Amino acid sequence: MNVFLGIDAGTRNVKVVAYDREGSAVATASASQSVVTPEPGRAEQEMDAVWSVTAETIQTVVAELEAREDDAEIEAVGLTGQGDGCWLIDGDGEPVRNAILWSDSRAAPIVEDWARDGTLETLAEICGSRPYPGMSLPVLRWLADEEPAALERATTAFSCTDWLAYSLTGERGTDTTEATVPLLDRETTAFEPAVFEAVGLPERASLIPDLRAPTDVVGTVAETAAGETGLPAGTPVVTGAIDVAASAVGSGAVRPGDGAASIGTSLFTQVIGDGPGAEPTAIGMALGIDDRWTTAIGSNAGTRTLEWVRSAIADGASFDDLEELARSAPAGSDGLLYLPYLSETGERGPFTDPDARAGFLGLSPTHGTAHLVRSAYEGLTLALRDCVDHLPADPDRIALSGGGTRSSLLCQLVADCTGTEIVVPTNDEPGATGAAAFAAVGVGAYPNLEAATDALAGDRTRYAPRPSTAGTYDELYAAYRDARTDMAPIWDSQAAFRTSTDAAGTEPTADPDAE
Q: In angstroms, rounded to a whole number, what is the distance separating the alpha carbons of residues 313 and 368?
């Protein structure tokens, strides 16, 4: 039995899954890893530690395959992982410093300066999207200013996935999805050194390694890596893609017009098309396959809302009971509207406002607990529709993944609120599935990604939008859009109030014995 290994190295967890040609996960393993926070707003990982955790997780899957009685043989390895950030190595292949992650905000003042002086627009014109602080180019600018000695030692700038490919094969490269923003020309999808000139780092363009498509074979497992992972030396390793693109592919979204969305601790939406689009808060990524792009918009809203409602409003009810409570209220929650901006960092898409906060609007004495709970579910799906409506094309269908798909109510509400068919693959690791699909195509096991994902993504549960609720949710969405726009000055004043309160400190407790 031939299998394809999909490796998904997330920020907090590494997952390795072996799939047979019918899409069954025949062996799987996962392990957690830590993030270093040297200062508030900073996020780093020790590069050797990330490789060590990944190698041990691979070894667990290899051992499980070897224990089987069907002589499972690993045909190829595919990769995906957390995107962006800056993972630097020197000429000997050794890490220069800890990796600076996508979630790190130390370069935020630099990006703010670029926004003021026009550099940000110049970069967007070149690559199609505006870079954010956790991307490689702003981080490299920060390193040039703050840690020039470290940058001087560096010879190659990687992403997480690139680092793992190098650790497996000894080959240096990066894929098109990872490099698109902020490094590629949006018209040619070729590396554009002008981005380094735009930020005053022309001499650092040499840090970018060779560009590859996600289905290219980057190399084969080297002897040293074979000893650390248990993989047979010489096993083909396929470049893979950033986790956003791999998750779309692993969910079955590969054809133009296919959409994908994830409901987890945050929301993420994307659509496959033939260009990057022009939405300011969207990120376009070239797939490097048949001129296809995926354009994505993320929101900070997510299942944290349901966890908060369960704890604060529903008296610690189980999630099953929470869903039943929501089902007992009518569609539209009798006019109660919930804005799901519960993150302390506000909102990032499809609008950006660090001061945005959650809240219920339209509350009256006729509303009970069931209304509050259902409104929270509906608020999440309205936030997802808000992202979908700002994508460059309307998806023909949306492949849904993430922890939120455990709720059939939430899946149905996404279909109802977006007016789009929702499909939920049975394989619950879309990143690893996408990585395995890239690997399978890369070694010729399938002629294209469509065939690979049809085989590997598994069966799908489908949710059709219900015509009976269409008018209700269209009306509720219009109110939602108006509300989140009109709330901006109120959020500003609330932020100022929080700042003034923090500055004043805690009010002293009165002394009952004082005169």
A: 10
Phi, psi of 301 (to 5 degrees): -65, 150
Q: How far is Cα 245 from Cα 251, in angstroms, rounded to an integer?
A: 10
On average, the pLDDT of the chain sits at 93
How far apart are the C-alpha atoms of 273 and 393, rounded to whole Å?
7
What is the rounded average pLDDT of the residues 166-170? 98
**Which of these, 118, 240, 139, 136, lies nearest to 180 by C-alpha position?**
136
Give kind and range of the element (H or E) at residue 372: helix 369-389
Q: Which pLDDT value is given to residue 8? A: 96
CA 460 to chain CA centroid, nearest Å = 22
Gap between the Cα atoms of 258 and 240, Å rounded: 20
What is the three-class DSSP state of 395?
coil
Q: How far is CA 388 from the centre of its chain?
A: 15
Give the CA dihedral 284, 287, 288, 293, nearest 10 degrees: -50
Answer for the pair 282, 295: CB distance below 8 angstroms, yes or no.
yes
What sign results for the dihedral spanned by CA atoms 209, 214, 216, 219? positive
Beta-carbon contacts of residue 348 (< 8 Å; ≥ 6 apart): 281, 298, 299, 300
What would the two tokens of residue 255 be?
A: 């054809």
353 compared with 220, residue with greater pLDDT = 220
pTM, two decimals, is 0.87
CB burial of 354-366 (b: ≥16 within 10 Å; e: otherwise) equals ebbbbbbbeeeee
Closest CA to 383 of 306, 446, 313, 320: 306
Q: Are strands 283-286 and 293-299 parallel, antiparallel or unpaired?
A: antiparallel
C-alpha to C-alpha distance for 355 and 497, rounded to whole angstroms: 11
Output the six-digit token pair for 20.
């047979």
Orientation of helix 449-456 relative to helix 243-250, angle to 10°: 70
Cα-based angle 264, 472, 316 (whole degrees, multiple of 5): 40
Concatenating the DSSP letter of every residue in 470-505 gives: HHHHHHHHHHHHHHHHHTHHHHHHHHHHHHHHHHH-
Cβ neighbourhood burial of 283 (10 Å; 0-12, 13-18, 19+): buried
| Residue 511 predicted with pLDDT over 70 | no
Residue 314, C-beta contacts closer than 8 angstroms, at least 6 positions apart: 321, 322, 325, 369, 373
Which ranges of 131-184 would DSSP assign to H, the alpha helix?
Answer: 136-146, 148-153, 160-169, 176-183
pLDDT band at 515 (very low <50, low <70, confident <90, very high): very low
- Give the 3-state secondary structure of residue 430: helix
- Rounded CA separation 280/124 (Å): 9
CA atoms within 13 A on the CB side of 430: 30
Quote the CA–CA distance of 490 and 433 in Å, as a whole number: 44
Q: What do you get for the CA distance between the two ends of the chain, in Å? A: 86
